[in-house]
Amino acid sequence: MSNSMFNYSIIFFLLLFVISEIVRKHYFKKLNYPTVSAGSVVMAIGIFSLAAQQTLPIKNIFLSELIALGLLILWLYIAISYCICFCKKHLLIQGSINQFSIGTWVAGCAMMAMVIHKEFPSLHILIWIMVLIAIAIWLVYLLLVIKLFWRILIGVSKSHTGIILLSTVSTQSIVIVLNTIIPNHIPQYVNQVLIIIGFVFYVIGLIIILRYYIPKKTSYILIWWSNTNSIIHGALSITGIASLITHVISNNIIILTWVLTTGLFFLIESASLIKLYQRVKIAGLLKGALSYNISQWSRVFTYGMYYAFSLLLFESKLFQNQLLKLITQDGQYIVLITLLIEILIFFRSKFSN
Fold first, then answer.
1. Which of 17, 174, 236, 254 has the fewest CB atoms nearer than 10 Å to its CB?
2. pLDDT surpasses 60 at 2
3. Are 331 and 292 in contact (CB under 8 A)?
4. What's the structural domain count of the chain?
């Protein structure tokens, strides 16, 4: 990056920061009370920037850098909020759901590092700060996840939604960010071990989820269907991406992973659409479909991750079929529309308040 481009980037960053501060002071009075899963917002926008946005016709360097700078400001706000909460002892991470949600901090930092690396590759210090934060949190999170899974399996603790699969998402995000920032420098056995750990977490998490849902009636499942269940296919997508970029998993297993991910994608999102229809039918469009919840960002993230996996598989030429071709040609528009809808729902909730 030339000095002039770097100077322009600093100017745009400061300008965006000033604008965001004006908006925050008018509409977001409290900076210091974020939810534990606030990192999912960075995850969702980050994967859009890294994959879907790159194949849109409106793609240009200025827009890409603008999104990256805006995402960095958002990350800073969330990080500052967490620090304030920690100092004031308002950061509530009790309960298995909140503790599993810490995985969004890992994946959010990893996504942020990759976005900066792509748009501003000369900012080595900032990139490595993000990577080291992600690794540090993941190491603590790894021990916490093992404890949480054990408590759930023996019946001491209860958690049965897709949020428990953030254990897989966070682990595979470490694999991807390391192999993106320093490709060909991570020993293959390290990549294999990390991918296997993530996959083991996935199998355990899926067993827990199925153990809960299988005995239930269909009507009960649809009523209590969680937005975070989209992570069931999202966690497989990120596992597929980690396997593709590291080349430590056989091609047949990667292809099988995509087939399973696709089947789960249509199954899980069909259930989500049925629930959405019932919500709109009962509560109307505004309350039924356009009410904001932080968990909705997980769907944006998993849509983006499924598209990224499909695109990477298509470009690798390991596997080709009409569905894969269709997804890679038009899937980016679905991801964009999903992201824009979520942003509109978010701002509508804040402005209406």
1. 17
2. no
3. no
4. 1
What residues make up the domain containing 327? 3-352
Q: Supply the CATH number for residue 139's domain.
A: 1.50.10.150
Backbone angles phi, psi at 74, to 5 degrees: -60, -45
What is the tens place of the pLDDT at every residue in 46-60?
Answer: 999 999 999 998 877
Q: Per residue in 166-218, pLDDT tens?
A: 999 999 999 999 999 999 999 999 999 999 999 999 999 999 999 999 999 98
Q: Give the per-residue pLDDT at 33.
A: 55
Give the closest residue to 230 by CA, choosing from 299, 301, 331, 304. Answer: 299
Model pTM score: 0.93
